[in-house]
Structure formats: structure tokens, C-alpha cells
Amino acid sequence: MNRHVSRREALAGIGLGALSAGCLGRTRNIAGRNRPSQLTLQIDTAPADRDPNAIRIARHLAENLNAVGVDARINTLSRTDLWRKVLINQGFDVYVGQFLESEPFDPDAMYAFTHSRFVAEAGRQNPFGFTDINGVDDQLERQRRVEGRERRDAVAELQRSLCELQPFTVVAFPDPLSAVREDRFEGWTNRQPLSPGALLRLDRAETTDGTADDGDAGTAENATAEEETADEETADGDAVLRLVTTDDQITENWNPIAAEYRRDGTFTSLLYDQLALVDRGEVIPWLASGWERVDEETVVVDLRDARWHDGEPVTAGDVAFTYEFLRDTSMGSLDTEVPTPRFRGRSSVVRSATVVGDGRVELAIDDVNDAVAVRALQVPILPEHVWSERTDVATIAGFEFDVETTEAVVSNNGDPVGSGPIRFAEATAEESVVFDRNPDHFLARADSTRDEADPAAGVPERFRGKPAFERLRIEVSPSDIAAVAAVGDGLADATVSNLGPDAVPRIGRDADTRLVTGRSGGFYHVGYNARRAPLSNPRFRAVIASLIDKETLIDEAFDGYARPAASPLAASSEWVPTDLSWDDRETDPVYPFVGESGSIDTDEAKELFRDAGYRFDEGGRLLSRGE
What pTM did the predictor assign? Predict the structure, then answer.
């Protein structure tokens, strides 16, 4: 009879030692040097106070791996250390984390995530070291070239390949959860409430007399809170948008191209303009006043009149420099190129950028479809006079790098100089950061007229004259629950970090606070280091995928605030073929969970490992391959 092991039984059998740090294949049986060794896997993830969802997924996987004879150990790291280990040094077995994109995304986002051309690079591009030259690579290239039904078919085949080969296992798409109050700012929406576009869409709340609310205390209960933040109001009464987060990295690092400091880069996206912005699926000319695809391999871009935050003009030379810099942050000063660890999929479309006139740049691009070409315009444009000084090899005290890198990649980018609608004001490390509205930005300079001199021509009305705040202040909170309390007490207008489900019930306790949520593209996943055996074996990875009970995790880890998925494109459901869709299914359509509702079937799981070529000793321990 098959034996089912409950979650409680699995926990009891692990012991404290199995949840401590470890490393694949290092543990040998202490009873004898010649005895076969048990397979050991280390699962790296962020701690519970930084990412409660990730640690719960890691524990679930560790419990089930231990139940079937794998010595699985959890290793918690700060977010920065976690991503430096996984993305830069690539020294991991298995990790649990979230995909970079915060909103539903175009399928081409998978290009950088899985293409073998990036396997030797450090960064968010192909962190798995995954290669499938004649399969996935070809499918990734094809979906870039074709349009319409052909592209849909190509994307469907790409998803089937990724689901079969499992370089990573998609677990769930969490609902982005934020607590907000609307007595000072309104317009919070249930679609990425804290994306750059959403923050720019906010409006000042109006009082009953029709004037904008300057944050005066409306009740005795919040008077103290308002007094404490009164010094944050400017002399003429303009409001400060006050946000609270559990991630202190935004108070110390503002590098838009760094891989390890943050997941989605909301605020660096407001510091640094892109040529194009995509908001609610609409492509909007942003720093570019417009562009024309003159032939299959050429795009000509015209720039708006804009200035960097230090007063220098934004030029076509800055744009040309940016694309060359993203390709090689050493700008040829080192023996080998050091590409940026972010935006590689997008920037790789551009082969070269050439200044062809005042405020005009010509991009030589690969023969790609229009959707991919537009993605190439969505990179942060950098000032050449600042970043050209950061091309030397990194020599920052206290840092250890396993690969040669540049100061540009690892710099905190103190006192950042961008061209975006907000500019850096001040920061206290691990406590707070303050940004001011940029009055020289084309949004701030826009008016309601549509004449030839309109500085924001082509920009929708919802963004004109924005942002609605004069100052943006972000405070660091010790926990999600404390962050929600700050909003309820009137000390903040919204939480920034995605809230864990434990904090959600507290939101309804205050009449002025409500929960906003939406759709996320940032799926939680289990990533495998395919550079190492046995994780290099797709059959082994497939068995691990079948040990993850996604439905149970949705209930227990996410408290229902997530959707299980097999495909990484599930947030953009129009791309997902029927055979990979989770709709009306109770388990994974590709690798169903080996068990029932939280109970793993150890006998069946072990049989799957045996079918994949692995064996167990007399004590039920899974042995390293070949022993």
C-alpha cells in the first residue's frame, strides 16, 4: 500500500539540523568514509520577516524532499545576499524567489530568463545556467520574429518546453496586497496599485469645501500622527505622499541596473525615464517624443526636451551611450565584456545606437516583431557624464566577487542623477528616503493645451501635470503588521511591500484603511542550478516539481491570495494554451503533485526517482548518482 505522509509527520521527521545550512553533495555518512553518500540539497531563500511566502514554499519543499530521503536544508539570507549568491556568484543548489516583472508581461520576458546565450553572464538573465540549444533557444528566437497566430503558436510551444524541462518550477502568482488610505490621495486602483504608472496616476484628495487636503488632522485620534509629520509639508501646503516598506534597500541603493538589491525597481523607474512606458497595456511615448521603424532593422527615435536632475541636458548621445553601456559596463576597458545584470533581454535587441541629429538617435535592431522592438525602448536612460566614470573594475571594500565586474554594477549610486518625474532629496540608511517632485520634468511642465510646444505631446491626460505630490517619503517598517498599523494610524498613505496574508485581517480594523490588490506577473518559483548534478538532469528536476503541492501552498502559505500555475505566462492568460492552463484543475497539468491535499505519497515519489535513474539505500536515503 502506498504510504502518505502528512505535513505534520514530515516536520517531525526532519529535525532542526535538516533545516539548517548545507550544500549539495557535501554530507557524507559519518559511519564510514566508504559508505554511499546521501544526496544533500540546500534551498536558499529570504527570511520570514522579509518574504514569508518564500520561506513557506521552501519549508514545504524541504519537508517533502526529506520525507522521500533527500537531505534538504534551508538557508536563509538577506535579500541582497540571496540575490548576490544566486545571480552574481551563481553558487547555489536551489532557491525560492520571485520573477522580476511586477505586472503581466510580454512573452519575450522569457528570452533573457532562459536563453543559453546568457549562460556565462552574471545577473537576472538565465540564473539557472540552463541550455537547450536546439529546442528552447530556437523557440525563443522564433517568437521574436513572427507575428499574430504564428507568434501565439511559437509561444505555446515555448511554454510546453519550459514546463517539460523545468529549469525552474512555477509555484504561484501572488495577489499584490497593499493597505491604503484615501483621505489625502485618491486614485488607488486594484491593478498594481504601487507600480510607477499607478503612483503617477494618483490625485490629491479634495475636502468637502472643494480644496485639496493638506493633511490636517480630522479627528483627535490622528492629531498626534499629523503633528509628527507636519514638518513634511512644504511652506505653501503642498502634500507629501508617505509610504511605508519593510525593504530598507531603497534607503541605501538607487542603482537601476543592479541585480541584487530589489525585485521590481518601482522608485528607480521614477528616477530614470525610459524612452517608452507601457501602462495598462498602452504604449506611451515617454522620454522619446516618438519613434519610427523605418525598416525591419532600424528604429529612429526623437527625444523630448529634457534635463538631468543636475541641470545638464538629456541628449541623443546619452541614449546611444546607454545601449552601449548596457552591453558592456566596462566600455571596452576590460579584457572581456561586463554586461549589465538587468535589462539584457531588452537591450540585446539593439545592436548599435548612433546619434543622427540634434535630439535624434538611430537604433540598429535585430529583425524582431513590433512587440519586442517596443520592449527594447523600455530601459533606463543613463547620463553619460555620470556613468562613464564607473567603468573601472570593482574594488569596493567589503565586497567579494566571483567574477570580474565593474563599479557601475555594484555601486550604490549615491545621490542618483536621472531625468525622471522624481529626484533624490535625502536618505537615512535603514530608516527613510525622501524624493522631491521634479518641476522640470515634461509631465510637470505639461498643460492642457495641445500646441506644437506641448512638452508632453502624446502623453495621456492621466499623467499630465503629475505627480500630484511635491514630496515622496518612504519609511522603513520592521514588519508587514507594523506597516499596516502605520497606515491605519495616519502615519502613512500606503504600504509599499507586498503584504503577507497575516497582515491582511488588520487592514479592516481602521475605517480609513482599505485593501487594494491586483494581478501580478512576479510569480514565485523554485529555481534550480542546472550547472550542478543532479540538478542538471531535467528528469530529476521534474520529480522535484511533482513534490510541490501548489494548491495546498495557496491555502496555507498565501491564505488564498494567489493563483497556482504551471506556466510562467499565466498572468497573461491569453498566451497560455489549454493544456497548460490551471482552470478547473485541482493539480498541476504537467507534473501533478505526488499525493493528496498536503500528504505526500512517499512510495510513488521514490518510484519516480528510481525511474529517473536514482536509487535508495536500505535506510530509505536517496543516494548521489552513481553510488
Answer: 0.87
